[in-house]
Structures
1.
Amino acid sequence: MLWKALLTLLLHKPFGVLSQFTPEPDSRWGCLADWVDVPGVYAAGRLDADSEGLLLLTANGRLQQRLTDPRFGHWRTYWVQVEGMPVASQLDALRQGVVVQKQRTRPARVDHLASEYWQALPEREPPIRIRQSIPTAWLTISLTEGRNRQVRRMTAAVGLPTLRLIRHSMDLMDGGPPLSLSDLRSGEWRAVTPNEQDRLMSLLKRPARNRSRSRP
């Protein structure tokens, strides 16, 4: 049915939830079925179980493929709490690209996250473990690729272990506002608006851009 093919949801995925609807045997993590009772939708991309934030769910297989194809390079923005106080050289290294699993990451957008944003975040459940002798800081990191545990590996590579990771938004690269968590609290989801759905469907008409990957 047409309405089912167009069905797309935005979810604020909680910590401890796999980006799939079936549980894994003997896993300590939950799954999306514990939070979303809508049949026929699947995650377009993934967030690790120990990460939180924006996850797009769709019943449209072409859209799912389009949003996860690295040739299109949508900017995805993460709010990242790291252990330690970043210095300019560490931020510059993240921006320029670091070697992760023998391959250099694409240039990233990296900056300090304003305190008004991270101070408004609710505590994670369960709370992160903080060493009292080591300060923490919040960064905003935007990427156009999504390799396995990439943000965590990148920050670790420059000496800033990730403590908490929240995907905040995804830019559709069409001049409109990014899809974001907006007012969604952890575990909440909503259907995309008609305007957002039109924008998502328009993606299927746009050709991939040529992007070369840098090598170490």
2.
Amino acid sequence: MSDFSPEWLDLREAADARARNQSVASAVAARFALRSELSVLDLGAGTGANLRATSALLPDRQTWTLVDHDTRLLDAAKAKLIRWADRYEEDGERLVLDKGGKRITVLFKAADLARDLQALLDDKPQLVTASAFFDLTSEDYIRALAKAVVAAGAAFYATLTYNGLQKWTPHRPADNQMTAAFQRHQMRDKGFGPAAGPLAASHLVDQFRINGHVVVEGESPWRLERSDRMLIDELVRGHAVAVTEIGGVDEKAVVGWVNVTRTGAFVGHTDVFAAPS
């Protein structure tokens, strides 16, 4: 299973929040507008960014279970949520937050998401969420997830699933070669079987529709500019590492590509909301 540092997750959080598709977010808000409370299961929760971005769409009383295999990230999530909240209290293993008129109870759970999915759904959450997660998983995992979520009677909201679209500013001849190699790396096994990578969003849409949920989807690309220089630089470094690992691109070409000063980047993502008809 892939590991991400708290620093990387912090670096991308603002770009993720800007990129979210507002039409899909509005569909989520409309679906739960008449409810007074909601239980949410957040897969691959990292440092809790998905809760911070999504909670404003949901009813005034929410219970979130944040799940990640990395306890270091869950500890970071707790600390960041405490700083984010207007007020907080700790009740045993639960964190209770007041934020913008919402009362949010948060539980933290370390689990192997590749193996423990069904057990996590046994508590019958009403909404299953994840952000920037499913491109790491396999087509088989997505198929099993859709069946399990539908069987539990839950809705589903996945944001920022990488869809393979990239454009760098300024453009260089090696961009396409680097992107192709990066895509091959994305489809390596990340702990869930051969990763769906840029095909993950399409698989999510197909599987939830096959299983009877109504699906709304929309694009949520990063549009990075000069003010996002730190994130652009980290993306460039990450691409270079991935391409070096997968091979197929001359080392001098990789070095030359990395040394280009980038002033912008477009990275494609897709948001998906699926709910019982």
